[in-house]
Amino acid sequence: MNSPLVLGAIALSFHRAVAAVTQHVLEAYGHRVTAVEAPHEELFRRQAAGEVDVLVSAWLPTSHGTYLAAYREQVHVLSPHYDPYCIWAVPPYVPAGEVGEVADLARPTVAARMTRTIDGINAGAGISRFSARMVSAYGLDRVGYRFVPGTESGFIAGVERGLARRDWFVVPLWRPQYLNRLYGLRPLAEPKGLLGPVDAAGSVVRRAALERIHPDALTRLDGLRLGNDGVEELDALINHGGLTPLMAAERYLARHPEHLP
Questions:
Q1: Could you give the dihedral angle defined by the CA atoms of residues 14, 15, 21 and 25, in that order, rounded to the nearest 10 degrees?
Q2: Across all residues in the chain, what is the average pLDDT?
Q3: In degrees rounded to 5, what are phi and psi of residue 80?
Q4: Is residue 188 a contact partner of residue 99, using CB atoms and an 8 Å limit?
Q5: Stretch among 48-52, 233-237, 256-260 having the lowest mean pLDDT
């Protein structure tokens, strides 16, 4: 049996999914894994304090770089598992000719039809920080829009409720996220670039833990390339298929044995 490890996931379903795959790999090489989770900022603080050996996953350089900067010299970032990016999107039934970019949301004929409360996830997420700035930068606040951070479950329920009622609404979203896969939400052009570029999402390992991780496990994790599509497949198994993250990881790895030792 190799050394015990604390594996920390950011408390969102797709992060849990990637963490579950990571856990399977570590356990395959004999590690005893304790899984924990916390919101973005808290989890990075806990790793900085030495409480988390492996953090899944940091979106760098844009979304999470500010959280990692305080202790960057204490960690090693693995090669990216996927390439995330943030978007604002609308349902597919909202005509592209009327709402094609973020600025269109402020047009009087569009604003009159839109749900002007923009629901998001927790305030520490990159998409939430970016979205809060966008409301004022695009003048959306002047026509009644406001961004309201919340829980992941409340955010998902709001999207599904709006789709069921065929409401016009805008959703701060990202890839990878299973809602993209399920509902065909259409990204809006965002010419000011406030949503940031494409990030690279890799696991963060404390340097103090590197020598305790089986070298073949570390090599396997460093080469674990799920891609946005793979993470969305995992996320859909959890949220639409009703599986736990570990069960979703087992099913995904059965379909994609190249990720197994």
A1: 170
A2: 95
A3: -65, 140
A4: yes
A5: 256-260
Q: pTM (2 decimals)?
A: 0.90
Distance CA 46, CA 61 (A): 20
CA distance 93 to 118: 18
What's the distance, CA 255 to chain centroid? 22
- Give the helix, strand, coil percentages of the chain, each rounded to 5: 45, 20, 35
What are φ and ψ of residue 42, in 5° steps? -65, -40
For the chain, domains (ranges, CATH) are 5-83+199-259 (3.40.190.10), 85-187 (3.40.190.100)
Q: Which amino acid is at 190?
A: E
pLDDT the model gives residue 181:
84
Distance CA 15, CA 5 (A): 18
